[in-house]
Every structure is written in structure tokens, then in C-alpha cells.
Amino acid sequence: MPTILREGPYRFFFVALDLGEPPHIHVRRENKVAKFWLDPIVLQHTGGFSRTELNTIARHIQENREMFLERWDEFFGIE
What is the pTM of this model? Predict the structure, then answer.
């Protein structure tokens, strides 16, 4: 599970077994883990985060979306 970005208390990462799914990012803080699709950005799993915190996380994802998509392609060997 490579860490792609750390932003404040959040760790954004990929899971190697997710190759067959559309590009997405997982985000963890303590024991909470959410999942967002990247194209388009859509919350897939709340992971116990509050709506306010999910909005904050979504802003971080929007700001880093292009980098996340590039890193997804690099990590999974997609050209």
C-alpha cells in the first residue's frame, strides 16, 4: 500500500490488489478509511468519516487529482 501523499492527518494511498478497478484513492486517518473514485471524483466509501471531514478530504483530492491519476498509471504500469 504505497503512500502517495500525506496531508495533515491524512494518508492517501493505493492498494495493489485494486488494479481491476477504476482509478481511485484510499485515505486513512487513525482507524477510518474512505475511498474516492478519481475520474470523476466521487465518494465510494465513507469509512466512518463525518460529512465535514469528507468535504475536506474531497478538496485535497481535487487539488491533487492529476498527480494521483499519474501515480496510479505509474504504479499499475498503465500507459
Answer: 0.93
